[in-house]
Amino acid sequence: MSGNKTRAEIIVITSGKGGVGKTTTTANIGVGLAMKDKKVALIDTDTGLRNLDLLLGLENRIMYDLVDVTEGRVPYKKALVPHKKFRNLFLLPTSQVKDKSSVNPEALMKLCDEMKSEFDYILIDCPAGIEQGFQTAIAGADCAIVVTMPEISAVRDADKIIGELGRADKDNIKLIVNRIRPQMVEQGDMLDMKDINDILSITCIGQVPDDEKVVTSTNRGEPVIMTEDSLAGRAYKNIVRRILGEDVEFMDLHKDTFLRRLKRAFGMN
Amino acid sequence: MKTRLNDTAQEVELVKIKGVKQGLLLTFSDISDFNKVEAEINSKLTSGFFMRGTHIFFKPGDLSHANEELLRKIFARYGLIFKVMPEVIEKTAPEIKADDTVETEYEDNKEEQERATQEETVKESDDITQMLVVNRTLRGGQEIKTKSSVLVCGNVNPGAQVIAGGSIDIRGKCYGMVHAGAYGNTEAFIIADKLHPTQIRIANLVARPPDDMEETEMAERASIKDGQIVIEPIDR
To answer: Residue A26: inside a domain, yes or no?
Structure first.
């Protein structure tokens, strides 16, 4: 993968249900891969409801968007927004004024093919739902990351999405479980990994705890993976290493929170 | 149908099409001039109203052998399957609504079509001894519907449906909706490694598992006993 600039891995990040953290995950994995010296492009396909630029703090640098590119007004390189800090991370934002019908699957596939030779990774942030926006977003992808939450409706929607991905012959599917609250899982008030695996039965590459730091970092436009001391940031770092092919053990969320609380009690944090 | 009514109509309809459980039923009011009948069917087909793969039935004895062959060829041109109305199945299929067919097309197009061509050569009564093998997990929103029995090598997830004329064997966990003996066969049964469906139906009986269902390590089998659906652990 690394050094081989002829063929980027194209990953679509999808979930079915809204609000589970697709965009947050895209931003964090994107930054994480860039921190590992990979050349990364992030494509926002949530036309009309774009957010990815906000999370990266790049809103005021946008000149052109995805619709300009797919409609042939500008070459994609002109629309790419380089990240402030990581010069090998680029965002291809989408339009906020158009809607999902402005980009069709063929156009995105063509664009991905064009971009493939320039990058190590291309991450596509997919809109919620299973309609046209979803079909467009998955069209050019080699593999998919399904983001879900330990909540029955999110898991059901993830299941449906995995079925839809299968119908579109996308068989390389990985799972990220986001916004886990260890205490609630412990008390049996939240689905645990076994419950989720029972239904979804696909390889899990990440378990991300619900962390207040995600909210603050989102508002600042700096993905949480850039902060040193957050649990969610560490979880995302592990996900990035797993994407790069490393075998990383899952961190024990329960023990960690307890330790952290202990540390805080002794003023060590 | 009263002939008097037909006579007064502006244009006499020689062919009537009626929706039935598994497709459409053709009835003929007058086949003395078969050329006219043929012309009418042709004009109906060119309207493009019929979905490919639909079964078109006729009542046994309505048509001569030659006419039957003629119509079969016409329908085949439009991807429609023309055959004798299966009496047995019509009588004992109270559960399935005609509009269900549309959903099936959505999910298992390929399998449905394969089966449709098979069915041409298989007698209706043989269907129940046939088995459809599904070698994957059925996820939410996916549906299998068949007259035969079904073997699922994988799980049946919540929101998925398996509707079978015969029995259902799930080599995995069952959380979805399962309906065995959907065309009236009360001998049909359902087996799964873990049988925890949202709803379970056999023939015309419906049951749902109790809210606090006990966990068992053994495979389970649901069948009708004394007019009730019962679930019992089995070895396998």
So the answer is: yes
Q: What angle do CA B88, B92, B94 make, to 5 degrees?
A: 145
Out of B141, B155, B175, the one facing A160 most closely (by C-beta) is B141
Both tokens of residue A70? Answer: 């797919």
pLDDT band for position A31 (cuts 50, 70, 90):
very high
User: How far is it, in rounded angstroms, from Cα A85 to Cα A30?
Assistant: 13
pLDDT at B120: 37
pLDDT at B128 over 90: no
Regarding whether B174 and B121 lie in a shared domain, the answer is yes
Token pair recorded at residue A136: 């467009």
ipTM above 0.90, yes or no: no
Radius of gyration of chain B (CA): 21
The reply to whether A160 touches chain B by the CB within 8 Å rule is yes
- Please write the tens of the pLDDT for every residue from B41-63: 888 777 766 776 777 888 877 77
Split into its structural domains, chain A has a count of 1
Q: Taking 60 as the threshold, does the pLDDT of residue B9 lie above it?
A: no
- Chain A residues in contact with B136 by the CB 8 A cut-off are 166
> Do B221 and B126 lie in a common domain?
yes
The pLDDT score that the predictor gives to residue B208 is: 86
A131 in contact with chain B, both atoms CB, cutoff 8 A: no
A47 falls within a domain: yes
> How far apart (Å, rounded) are the C-alpha atoms in residues A92 and A83?
11
> Measured between beta carbons, which residues in chain B are less than 8 angstroms from residue A157?
140
CATH of residue B146's domain is 2.160.20.70
Domain of residue B12, residue span:
3-85
Q: Pick from B34, B68, B85: which residue ends a domain? A: B85
B165 and B69 within one domain = no
Do A159 and B136 count as a contact with CB atoms less than 8 A apart?
A: no
Task: Tell me if B46 is assigned to some domain.
Answer: yes
In a domain, A2, yes or no: no
User: What pLDDT, in 10s, does the model give residues B91-103?
Assistant: 333 444 444 433 3
The answer on pLDDT for B126 being more than 60 is no
Query: How many angstroms away from the CA of B53 is the closest CA of chain A?
Result: 20
- Rounded to whole angstroms, how far apart are CA atoms B85 and B44? 20
B37/B57 Cα distance (integer angstroms): 16
- Structural domain count of chain B: 2
Taking residue A1's Cβ as centre, other Cβ atoms within 10 Å add up to 12
The torsion angle over the Cα atoms of residues A262, A236, A249 and A9, rounded to 10 degrees, is: 180
Q: From residue A198, how far is each of A58, A67, A124, B154, B162 by CA, in Å?
A: 40, 40, 27, 12, 19
For residue A4, being part of any structural domain is answered with no
Contacts for B204-209: CB closer than 8 Å, 24+ residues apart: B204/B94, B204/B95, B205/B229
